[in-house]
Amino acid sequence: MTRRGLVLFGLMSVIWGIPYLFIRVAVAEIAPSVLVLGRTAIAAAILLPLALVRVDLRPILARWRWVVAFTVVEIAVPWVMLGAAEQHISSSLAALLIAGVPLVGATLALVSGGADRFGRSGAAGLLVGFLGVAAIVGGDLGSADIVAFLEIAIVVVGYAVGPAILARRLGGLSSLGIMAVSLALCAVAYVPIAALQWPSAMPSLDVLGAVAILAIVCTAAAFLVFAALIDEIGPVRATVITYVNPGVAAVLGVVVLHEAFTLSMAIGFGLVILGSILATRRPGATVAEQPRAAESAA
User: Fold this and answer.
1) Are 183 and 223 in contact (CB under 8 A)?
2) DSSP states along 166-223
3) Residue 182: what pLDDT?
């Protein structure tokens, strides 16, 4: 990997590792719907003008039904569910659980018949991965809200289904255009919802800063940096960051927010990563090719 590739990889590992921390900060004072509105509106204001200049949006708008479906399952529902969950569980725990997205993606592919020669290693990977999820959840089950776990489950499923729509129904279209339009649609949809839950007092500077970072850094800039990373090292190797981000999020939660990090969480995270690698590995694939199916998590 080139020096530029390493720099971009490091940036993405941090950029997509910090959202959980800032979501936790933001939802302490504002409703998750208000956070989603702020995040999507600011990011759309940055990306949509770029898309209008660089991309012909007409082919994207022609498939508006699938763009709406992608927006719902990848952004509108998961982001509000994640914010709601982090009102009751730590950012570290949320990030570690979302590391199971490749497992759900592999399961959906198997159930739908889309898995290519899903062999013993894939089945073993699913078993190991879900044992890891059980270890993560079990270590915190006594003190956490079960509703929060269900909300995280919705997030994980959405993050697994969204890329399938992107690949199968929106393939060949500009990803910049799709993301810009999706963010704009989500922002418009959340205006009336957020208005009903608008804070009665001005949020603190910490919360306003968290919303700005989530929108500018973790959404708009993240997309542009990730596109540059793919151009530099290719889509397969770029998806390895999906195994790094939850670890970054867990460390930040412990260091910045002083969240608890138990032995069961550490063991469970290791099992989830191992299971994800096995479950998304194509039979006969090399180590460098293993993250290919994990693109759903990215």
Assistant:
1) no
2) HHHTSTTS-HHHHHHHHHHHHHHHHHHHHHHT--SSPPPHHHHHHHHHHHIIIIIIHH
3) 97
Q: CB neighbours of 163 closer than 8 A, spacing ≥ 6?
A: 74, 105, 295, 296, 298
Which tens digits make up the pLDDT trace of 115-165? 555 567 777 888 888 888 888 876 655 556 789 999 999 999 999 898 889
Q: What tokens does 287 get? A: 């180590």
Listing DSSP states for 18-65 in one string gives SHHHHHHHHTTTS-HHHHHHHHHHHHHHHHHHHHHHH---HHHHHTHH
Per the CB < 8 A criterion, the answer to whether 81 and 157 are in contact is no
pLDDT, one tens digit per residue, over 237-272 is 666 677 778 888 888 998 999 988 888 888 888 888
For Cα atoms 243, 102, 233, give the angle at the middle one, nearest 5 degrees.
50
The pair of three-digit structure tokens given for residue 75, joined into one six-digit string: 């952004």
The per-residue pLDDT for range 43-87, each reduced to its tens digit, is 999 999 999 999 999 999 999 999 999 999 999 999 999 999 999
Owner of token pair 């099992």: 271
Separation CA 293–CA 280 (nearest Å): 5
- Closest to 298 (Cα-Cα) out of 79, 27, 102: 102
Half-sphere exposure in the Cβ direction for 276 (13 Å, CA) = 31
Token pair of 57, please? 């949006």
* In contact, 139 and 268? CB cutoff 8 Å: yes
pLDDT at 139: 61
Task: Count CB neighbours of 33 within 10 A.
Answer: 21
